[in-house]
Structures are given as structure tokens and as C-alpha cells.
């Protein structure tokens, strides 16, 4: 399939395909296009976002079956072959002979690359090593000074995952404030987000910038745009005194405050009504996993709040009311809230 045709055919399954590079399109045409068409025949849509428990189990099953098929003796060797230079050629040959790409993505309606990255995260023994010691933090600073943001290289030197070292460096690279946000910090955050959104809107629709500049309120972009992913490491740099996760959490709290238009959704009788509505709506979805829930639809039902508000409200509900919630499935948690907690909340209201 030529490049233009591949891009057109992939657009049916991946709406943001126009933003994907030509080299990635070529790879997806080979690895994903036929899979996507087959999933469509089965009535299955291509998925993005957080992986479900069911998908994680399928990935583990696919990897274990491939290991049994090829005789490779560990998932780490299969997925982190560069750590085993003496076995590298043999493993690459076995991957080609036994169609590694097809086997690892079997039964999962997602782009192959995302499945591969998820498998690496699941099976990386360096991913779960607990807190960083003071010595490790100093090591990380030194390695970053030597190698820049080559997190793959640094992760090998520290025996930590790429994601782990990148995130930790983001936290420790400057004097981070863990106390309450000052007015100056909040203004820096708002300015940084506005700057990012202005550039994003300019790229997508130049005419929209004039309305952004003319707005006298902080609600200068509609709710759908405000709730989109933002480049948090860039925003972190502009704020200066907070790391990216703090910036993201603060922005979400600002969104909730502004988009509720002053409603006190968490207090008194309004708080009880919010909890009751949320439990009822979640029960009605009959979802088996959190990723099957339409959180945007739920947020509208609660009171035009961001999805993150609703998700955090659900988290507080399960932690506060559901005993041993970590051992229960998503649907078991919802059933417990509906059967045990809801009647008490309604009586209290």
C-alpha cells in the first residue's frame, strides 16, 4: 500500500492520523492496518488510553505463549534484548521466524507499538524498585549532566526503567515547593497554560486567537479544549518551582473550580447528591472496567465538571466506603457502592 492510501485507510481507525509521521504510517500499514480491518469485522473499535485489566491479562498471555513457542527463557530477554548482547542475534531471528509483532498483539484492538510499550512496562523488573535513595538521586543528577535526556542510557546505568528515571529527574532537578500554592505560582501556571493553548490554537485555527486575546475572563477556551492533554514538562519549566505532576493537579483543581461556576458540589446536601448521582450513573453503565466508562458524559451529568473531577470523586468513594477495595474488580466495587453505600447516602440526604 502506498503512503497516501495507507494514511487514508488508517484515518478510519485513527482520527489523529494526520499528525503521525510518514515513517510511523509505513510501520502501521504493515503491522496494524490488516488487524484493524479484522477487528472492524468483529465489531471491535480501535482503543486508546489506559489499558484495561482484560487487555493486560491478554498481553501477559501473548508473551507467555511466545516464550513457550520460541524457547526464550524470560520476558526480559524477549522485550529488553539489548540487555543480553550475547543472545541478541538468536532472539531477533526467533522474533522474525515466529512473527513476534502479530503474536504479541493478538486479540487486542490497539496499535502494535502501544501494545509493545505496555508489555515492556509490565515485564520490566526495573519498574518496581521502590523509593529512590539519596545516593541514587545524586547519581541521577550526574548521569543527566553527562548524557542529557538520554533516558534509555541512564536507565541502563541505574537499573531503573526509562519512565522512572525521567519522572524522578523532573521532580529533583530544581528546588521544588511542596507547600500550598502561592498567588504568584498560580499566576505563572495560568500564564504557562494560556501560552501553550494559544500556540496550539494558532496551529489549529488562526482565527480563534483573536477571541482568546479579547477575552476578559479566565474561561478563555471552551470546556472541550480545556480538558485536552497538555505538555506538562514544558509548563513545569515555565512555573519553575513545581514539578509537572503538581502543575497538572493544580490545573485540574482550577478547572474544577472555574467550570462548576461556583457550585459547591462537594459540601453539604450538594455533596451527597453528587455522590448519589455518580453511584447511580456508574451502576447504569454496567461497565466491567473503568476504561469502559464514558467519563465525559458522567461529568456533564454531575454538573459540567472536568472528567478528572468525577474520577477523583469516584476514587474517594471507593476508598472511603468499600472495604478491601484493592482486592475487588471495578464492577464489584460499583455493585457494593450501589447496594450498601447508596441507601445510607439517600437516607442521610
UniProtKB/TrEMBL annotation:
GO terms for biological process: termination of RNA polymerase I transcription. Gene3D superfamilies: Homeodomain-like (1.10.10.60). GO terms for molecular function: chromatin binding. It comes from the Eukaryota. InterPro entries: Homeodomain-like_sf, SANT/Myb, TTF1-like. Residues 124-172, 173-255 form the Myb-like domain. GO terms for cellular component: nucleolus. This is TTF1 factor.
Amino acid at each position: 500500500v502506498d503512503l497516501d492510501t495507507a494514511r487514508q485507510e488508517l484515518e478510519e481507525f485513527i482520527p489523529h492520523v494526520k499528525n503521525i509521521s510518514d515513517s510511523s504510517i509505513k510501520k502501521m500499514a504493515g503491522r496494524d492496518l490488516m488487524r484493524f480491518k479484522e477487528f472492524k469485522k468483529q465489531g471491535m473499535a480501535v482503543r486508546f488510553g489506559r489499558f484495561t485489566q482484560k487487555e493486560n491479562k491478554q498481553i501477559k498471555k501473548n508473551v507467555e505463549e511466545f516464550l513457550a513457542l520460541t524457547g526464550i527463557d524470560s520476558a526480559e530477554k524477549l522485550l529488553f534484548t539489548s540487555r543480553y548482547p550475547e543472545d541478541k542475534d538468536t532472539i531477533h531471528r526467533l522474533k522474525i521466524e515466529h512473527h513476534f509483532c502479530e503474536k504479541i498483539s493478538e486479540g487486542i484492538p490497539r496499535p502494535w507499538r502501544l501494545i509493545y510499550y505496555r508489555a515492556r512496562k509490565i515485564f520490566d523488573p526495573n519498574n518496581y524498585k521502590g523509593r529512590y535513595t539519596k545516593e541514587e538521586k545524586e547519581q541521577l543528577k550526574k548521569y543527566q549532566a553527562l548524557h542529557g535526556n538520554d533516558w534509555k542510557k541512564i536507565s541502563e546505568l541505574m537499573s531503573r526503567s526509562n519512565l522512572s528515571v525521567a519522572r524522578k529527574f523532573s521532580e529533583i532537578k530544581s528546588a521544588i515547593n511542596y507547600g500550598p500554592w502561592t498567588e504568584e505560582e498560580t499566576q505563572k501556571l495560568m500564564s504557562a497554560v494560556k501560552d501553550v493553548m494559544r500556540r496550539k490554537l494558532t496551529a489549529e485555527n488562526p482565527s480563534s486567537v483573536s477571541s482568546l486575546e479579547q477575552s476578559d475572563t479566565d474561561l478563555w477556551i471552551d470546556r472541550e479544549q480545556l480538558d485536552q492533554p497538555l505538555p506538562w514538562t514544558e509548563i513545569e519549566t515555565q512555573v519553575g518551582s513545581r514539578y509537572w505532576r503538581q502543575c497538572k493537579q493544580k490545573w485540574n483543581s482550577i478547572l474544577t473550580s472555574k467550570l462548576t461556576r461556583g457550585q459547591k458540589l462537594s459540601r453539604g446536601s450538594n455533596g451527597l447528591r453528587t455522590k448519589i448521582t455518580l453511584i447511580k450513573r456508574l451502576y447504569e453503565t454496567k461497565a466491567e472496567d473503568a476504561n469502559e466508562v464514558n467519563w465525559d458524559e458522567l461529568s456533564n451529568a454531575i454538573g459540567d465538571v472536568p472528567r478528572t473531577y468525577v474520577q477523583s470523586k469516584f476514587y474517594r468513594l471507593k476508598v472511603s466506603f468499600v472495604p478491601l477495595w484493592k482486592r475487588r474488580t471495578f464492577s464489584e466495587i460499583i455493585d457494593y457502592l450501589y447496594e450498601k453505600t447508596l441507601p445510607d447516602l439517600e437516607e442521610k440526604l
